[in-house]
Amino acid sequence: MILVTGGTGFIGSYLVKYLVKHGEDVRVLVRDKSKLELLGVKVDFVKGGVTNKDSLKEAFKDVEEVYHLAAIFRHGESKEKIWLVNYGGTKNVVDETLKRDAKLLHVSTVGVLGFASSNPLDEESPYNPNPNPYAQSKAKAEQYVLKMQREGLKAAIVRPAFVYGVGSNYGLNLLIDMVVKKRLRFVIGDCRNFIHPIHVKDLVKALVLAMKKGDSVYIAANEKPITLRDFLNLVASYVGVKLRYGFPPKLAYLILKIKGGIGGSSAEETISLFTRNWFYNVEKIKSLGWRQEIRIEDGVMEVVNWLKKLK
Ligand SMILES: NC(=O)c1ccc[n+]([C@@H]2O[C@H](COP(=O)([O-])OP(=O)(O)OC[C@H]3O[C@@H](n4cnc5c(N)ncnc54)[C@H](OP(=O)(O)O)[C@@H]3O)[C@@H](O)[C@H]2O)c1
Asked: Is the whole-model pTM more than 0.85?
């Protein structure tokens, strides 16, 4: 039996469907049972949460592999809740995995590394999470997994980069949505900085490979990064709008400071998305046999078409 936490979320729902399609017996730890129907596949489930140890005990019955995705991503939640779920929840999952001698695939984030300089970051880069509770709690959670690995936990960690795909309404999808809704005409800076997307379906394959073959930390992102400008222009070409670059970052910062950042990110984080490099070396996940299958042009077009229908 395979247990998935966060299996009704964006990435988790793709993962659960993939595992079931490949003949696996899957159990999902769910907070809201009605969300299971949206998965459209037959799975076992236990109602509960990662902060509820009793529900975890029940969920772990006969489990050999655990994909741990449950986390609070949106910055709108209280700091305490984010820490409780992202760090405390991971600790509970790790402790139960160790007790059962199961294997853990922990889903972390490249956010634990912060932004890059002129060279891509890799698995050896030092921790440097942004000063927000999400990145900080994910870094601490990952460090706990590594600590327990040294004490016998069977585990691998995947740090996804900018995940996009049909079904998400935040992260890169939020940026795509802003272009689709024509809410982004004047863009901060010249956007010559790199971002590093990965399609959710390519990510799922990386997660499964790391579970089967991995035993350390792996960054998962497309084989090549893309400048933010090329990415936005790609979206704009599908929408039929022309973006104007060069809105002064300092002025944008002042406006964002008053209005709040974009998508729950602070003014500082929003500016750094538009001005810093966020790119990675992906040789380590490739050494497990992973390859990018979805071209950015195709993945983005799919998301644009989906968002247009929702408008
Ligand atoms: N999306 C990205 O760009 C990205 C990038 C890097 C890393 N990640 C990581 O990928 C993982 C999945 O993210 P996502 O994008 O799929 O986010 P998501 O759609 O918000 O999914 C998060 C999942 O966690 C569940 N959850 C929240 N609190 C819980 C609790 N107390 N107990 C049990 N489950 C709980 C949610 O349950 P409900 O379904 O009931 O709401 C949801 O299924 C996270 O660990 C995140 O840090 C995501």
From this structure: yes
